[in-house]
Amino acid sequence: MEKKNLDWANIGFGYIKTDKRYVANYTNGAWDEGTLTEDDMITMSECAGVLQYAQTVFEGLKAYTTESGHIVTFRPDLNGERLENSAKRLEMPVFPKERFVQAVIETVRANEAYVPPFGSGATLYIRPYMFGINPVIGVKPADDYQFRIFTTPVGPYFKGGVRPLTIKVSDFDRAAPHGTGHIKAGLNYAMSLHAIVTAHKEGFDENMYLDPATRTKVEETGGANFLFVTKDNTVVTPKSDSILPSITRRSLVYVAEHYLGLKVEEREVYFDEVKDFAECGLCGTAAVISPVGKIVDHGKEICMPSGMEKMGPITQKLYDTLTGIQMGHIEAPKGWIQVID
Ligand SMILES: *Cc1c(COP(=O)(O)O)cnc(C)c1O
């Protein structure tokens, strides 16, 4: 397989069109068999459900080349399961998780020339999504849906080295109790755009959202879960019904317990406790873990003891172990690595 001639280390995180994408249509109450296509354009009614009432859910995962030269993806079954749950919450039909995994494999295979080589730090980002496509004007779920997967190569996340983030405690709320914070839906991102643009204007990298009901507990950022480490090396992650169940965070919790022998607590985390933690990181597919160096609450600064130069020691161990598992030089738990080629 001849690789595309891309400058893998410098492609950044933007959309680069690849050769093939997967499309399946849901009409008359059933999914068709689905197919790969070269057509990257979608034609739909001006009144499509997704355009009027934002009925759309998505996933994000990566394919990459391991040390031994295999193209693999990480726990795609969990993405398939999460998409099922997201769809149910928005009254959309379920695209079965077994078919999801198969479609991911087919799409990556068809775009093998775009899977960055081992060692480049770049990966092939995979974006599955589905949306209501028929005309909907009275507020109700659509009847017809489209499920698609496209891929796009993305550059190394920590280009030029790790840089701990400075984040602010947001005055905006991300997700209401009993709302949609736990599903991966564009609607949770649309309303976060004003908050992140505001934070960026003020010089912050990210927002820390608190629970809207009491504003005393840590929820997550716009697109990553928090992970804290106490001064006696216990890993703590916030538990809440309104945060997105990050696959990276769940995997790091497993690594902490079963590979590193650390104590893990998944529980409510009060903002008042944050000043006492030794390390803080953000977990998500994009970076695995981004270290947080400073948290600012209306001018009051909390500086993490791990500082603004590097990851904290436990965060680093978690990062090295999980990326080692992903790249194939540390043995993975059963079922974590889906070999594609
Ligand atoms: C996707 C996402 C995450 C990270 O989840 P991963 O499965 O680890 O990529 C965290 N928070 C939100 C709001 C997300 O949308």
Explain what you see.
With 341 residues, the protein is of the alpha+beta class. It has seven helices and 17 strands. It has helices at 49-53, 76-89, 97-110, 186-190, 193-201, 247-258, 313-327, and strands at residues 21-27, 30-31, 35-37, 56-58, 61-65, 71-74, 123-132, 145-154, 165-169, 206-208, 225-229, 235-238, 264-267, 279-284, 288-297, 300-303, 337-339. The strands form two sheets. Strands 1, 2, 3, 4, 5, 6, 7, 8 and 17 form a nine-stranded antiparallel beta sheet that branches. Strand 11 and strand 12 (235-238) form a beta hairpin. Helix 6 (247-258) packs across helix 7. The mean pLDDT is 97. Bound molecules: pyridoxal-5'-phosphate (PLP). Pyridoxal-5'-phosphate is lined by residues 60, 184, 220, 223-225, 244, 246-249, 283-285.
